[in-house]
UniProtKB/TrEMBL annotation:
Record-given protein name: MFS transporter
Domain (Major facilitator superfamily (MFS) profile): residue spans on this chain: 218-400
Species this chain originates from: Microvirga vignae
A matching Pfam family: MFS_1
Annotated transmembrane regions: 51-73, 80-98, 104-121, 141-163, 175-196, 217-237, 243-263, 284-303, 309-331, 343-360, 372-390
SUPFAM superfamilies assigned to the protein according to its UniProt record, in alphabetical order: MFS general substrate transporter
Amino acid sequence: MQVHSHTSDGLAKRNALVLACAQALGGSSPAIVVSLGGLVGQNLAENKELATLPVSLLNLGLALGTIPAAMLMRRAGRRIGYIVGAGVGLLGGCLAALGIASFSFVLFCLGTTIIGMYGSFNQSYRFAATDAASDSFKPRAIAWVMTGGLVAGVLGPQTVIWLRDAVQTAPFSGAFLGQAALALMSMVVVSFLRPVPVGIAPKAGSGRPLSEIVRQPRFIVAAVAGLVSYALMSFLMTAAPMAMVGCGLPIEAAALGIQWHILAMFGPSFFTGRLITRFGKEQVAAAGLFLIALSSAVGLSGIEIAHFWATLILLGIGWNFGFIGATAMVIDCYRPEERTKVQAANDFLVFGSVAAASFSSGKLLNAGGWDTVNWTVFPPVVIALLLLAWQHKARATVPA
């Protein structure tokens, strides 16, 4: 167990604020890709079943980038790693814009994949915020970073609305140039990150084998809760913009729906950490999964703007509780010197499933419609809730 004096939380709070700002900039990238990826895919792909492939590749890039990002940060440190990651995001945005301008679906997909790799650096911000934090501050440090997504929730969709027609000869490419500019700005922000002092930083090359850690029941349950929360969120969010447009609603309504969704994803972060401290990690994660199921129930009730937006808002809140709760559970499963490899393994599992979910979402929407997409949500939620209930009962029976 990592124990710090409360004075060390001054550094943790400073770094959490820096990372929250970086999250505000970097977190806008998925919003831009999700809002436009399927629509651009429909325009560029000959096979319309591949329309959501750019969004799926965003998530595949997230999965593929987790381990290289972890290795780079283990060797060069968090700050250098995040600066390199921002450079990756800059490259991805430029390639995506070039793919649209040159009518190349392959190049556009390459761009969204690289943007996803940028996201693999951004996703570790929540773990980086805990590096110098006391045990009592860790859940709040994670939540602080996630609040940066509130700005991203406005910035990403507004970038789509403001810049989608900036390049008259290549509609939507301007939004991806805007994404590249935001990545460049984040490169400056992360340069203010301070390293963890030697007395707090874990020793390299020690700890248990990864295979032993990931076989722990608590890690398995935490990974499943995070995986289901994130995969189902991506599953519904990927399909929603195309479903809205397919139901005759305007693109602006779809983009604003994603904006409300992202605000709902990160808005609760102001108090999620405190809820975890008061009620427990498993309980908060379970509440999140229940809200995700409720969002699908609303999605099945109608196809007006209000139904779609309510679905996306409930989905965002559910993701926040489920994912932050699961992240806090993962932190319990490793020692300080084991953090890098366990964090990378967890994120690889989560974002690998997210990539599969977003790709299958497009296929299901094309084959069975919006109702089929929503009905698919319930079985994995039930499985994750049963595992959380089992883990809670086991911990109550045999104290850790």
